[in-house]
Structure formats: structure tokens, C-alpha cells
Amino acid sequence: MLKILLISLAVLVATLFTISKRNISQEKNSGYYNLLVSDSLKNKEKKMEDKIIRSEEEWKKILTPEQYRVLRQKGTERAYTGEYWNHFEEGVYKCAGCGAELFSSDTKFDSHCGWPSYFTPLAGDRVIYKEDRSFGMIRTEVLCAKCGGHLGHVFDDGPEPTGLRYCINSVSLIFEKRPKK
């Protein structure tokens, strides 16, 4: 009888811990999202004149089918299949849709997630953020500020100095090698 009572108590404690942890995580993500969105709105006001606006037909002519699926339809490439997930040359990663410089190789790191990961964009105005509630999750989507193309998502489990992990689809990027000095 005592054994059943102790097991029941352990299950109850584990359940309460899980629910509590989930609520803390959601609150954390919500505050994190609000911070990113407020910064994004400030940047959006400054960079509105630089926006590239094209029709879906124009995008289909410019992009490969896979680039269109990811950049314009918010798709995701499979983990460990993209060109840049394990790429560590020195240079700049640009938006495949418009050529805007987004990330530097200096901020790229191996996160073991199967997609290129960076701890910060080149500048705060290069990307914008949007809440993404798809697939039953709450995430923060990362978009190119210039053309609005879907790049990937940002998470708060990255390395210092930012603690962020920008998890970006390779197909949404073009790499430009840095000239040797």
C-alpha cells in the first residue's frame, strides 16, 4: 500500500513539474518574442523604403522551386541536407531572394541541429521576426527584412554572447566567400 502511495505521489510531482516547466517556457518564449517583435517593428519603420516587392509569378521566375517553397511558402529543408549546414569558410551569407547580406561566418557555429546556425545577424535591421504557431508550437520566425523571405527560426538556446540560435535553411542563403587579405 505504501509503495503504491509513493509511486502515485512521484507521478503527481512529475506531472506538476512538467506542467510548471511548460508554463515557464511559454512565458519565457512570449517575452522573448515580444522583445524581438518590438525591435523588429522599430527596424521596419527605418528600412521600409528598401523593401523589395514582387508578385508570386515574379518570385517563381527568379527562384528555384525549392527556394520558392522555403522563402515564399515558409517551407523547411530536411535536416543535414542543405548546402551550408556543415560549411565553415570565411564570408557572408546573403538572402537567396534578394541578395541582402544577413549573416557572417564569424557568427556561425555548429549547433548539431542539421541547419546552418548563427548567434546573431550582421545587423539588427537585416531580419524581422514574426510569431509562428504552426505545427502546434510557438516559435519565432526569421524573415529577410528586405524581401520578406522566410529564412528559418530563432531559439534561445544558442552560445554566448547572445544566447540565440538562428536556425536558417541553406536554400534561403547564398554564400559569398571573403577575399583573402
Distance between the termini: 76 Å
User: Beta-strand level of the residues, as a percent range?
Assistant: 15-25%
Helix content: 25-40%
Biggest β-sheet: count, sense, barrel? Answer: 6 strands, antiparallel
Number of strands: 9
Summarize the helix and strand pattern as letters. HHHEEEEEEEEE
Query: Compute the gyration radius: what is it?
Result: 20 Å
Structural class: alpha+beta
CATH superfamily (homologous) name: Peptide methionine sulfoxide reductase
Which CATH-level-2 architecture?
A: Beta Complex
Strand order of the largest sheet: 3-4-8-7-6-5
Which CATH class?
A: Mainly Beta
Total domains, how many? 1
Which shape, going by the Cα principal axes? globular
Spans of at least 5 consecutive residues whose pLDDT stays below 50 are 8-48
Treating each run of at least 4 consecutive H or I residues as one helix, how many helices? 3
The name of the CATH topology is Metal Binding Protein, Guanine Nucleotide Exchange Factor, Chain A
Average residue pLDDT: 81
